[in-house]
Design goal:
The protein is an alpha/beta fold and 354 residues long. Helices cover 45% and strands 8% of the residues. It has 15 helices and six strands. A six-stranded mixed sheet has the order 1-3-4-5-2-6, with helices on both faces. Helix 3 (90-105) packs parallel to helix 4 (130-140), helix 6 runs parallel beside helix 8 and helix 12 packs across helix 14 (322-331). The longest helix has 19 residues, at 198-216. The radius of gyration is 22 Å and the shape is elongated. The protein starts with 47 loop residues before the first helix and ends with a helix. The structure holds adenosine-5'-diphosphate. Adenosine-5'-diphosphate is lined by residues 86-89, 126-132, 227, 251, 255, 259, 288-289, 292.
Length: 354
Amino acid sequence: IYNRYVDPTVGRPTHNDSSRQAPLPTSAPALQPSAPVLQTNQSNNTDNSNNKLEESGGAKHIDPKLIEMITSEIMELNLTTTWNDIAGLTDAKRSITEIVVWPMQRPDIFTGLRRPPKGLLLFGPPGTGKTLIGKCIASQSKATFFCVSSSSLTSKWHGESEKLVRALFAVARSRQPAVIFIDEVDSLLQERSENEDESTRRIKTEFLVQIDGASTQGEERILLIGATNRPQELDSAARRRFVKRIYIPLPDLSARQAIISNLLKDQKHTLTTQDMEHICTLTEGFSGADMHSLCHDAALGPIRDIHDIELLSSDEVRGISLDDFLKSLKAIRPSVSENDLKQYEDWNKTYGSI
Ligand code: ADP
């Protein structure tokens, strides 16, 4: 099934590749009135994104340093991820294609009743492909991808975070179609707690304002994707904004098989199809990321036998064997507990979309 399954990290574009630019919106909406005036246009700024913002009237309130940081660290153009890079998840892939990819490809058809949701939540155990799916949506929709994690927003950008959130949405508006992927969105939009500090509250408010701004502008082609391993921590305001909530579960047996055979396809190994099937039955409960760790550890098996690595020629390294996998299975264990899985399934029954 996965004969076209390739390593998604290969051929990853550089951040600054500007060979394909998203079309400029004819009239980008102004920023929220609350946006502080930071710095105005810098005449020597060579960043194309800033030029686009200026043309669309959105740069007046944005610090050019923030724009540059977003374009170099958060924005990715020309992603090449395809659905074949993601093993299993047939139902999720089908729904996502229908719910968000087609509408981004053909906004002229998906109007009125067919108008797509502006917010999509991907929830489930860590390491199951949520980020890969975000990238795939962006690449299939030919959209600019913005990927930011809540923890970096609240820690690394503490103090600047609100401005960064505003700048992020402004740059996305000037780079439509755009996908904004927020990892660990629960820590940004969680239920209010007693000890929530003022700045966390402000970032959250700004974020909700921006999401609402993006979703009321019918013409805008900005999709917000939130990813979380802890959906139960999202408050109801956040849940409401993510109209579609899709469960991304652990890979099933055939998906685990696809992951292993893909990872072994360019490696010297002695495993038969039956051996691979055997490994897959022993890896019930492993995430995609766990499967990668297992294969990586097993691939080191042949090297561990070697006494003097300096004297070894590369073709003397023996193939990876079933025994290497069985040894690695003693060290690499699933990272998700039964109890966690039950919580995802319960949340899916109550709030999930498929
Ligand atoms: P998440 O965002 O759900 O925590 P990622 O999408 O970052 O997980 O996946 C982490 C890594 O695990 C990926 O780079 C990939 O190598 C592997 N992986 C996870 N799920 C899959 C899958 N369904 N198919 C192929 N590889 C996967």
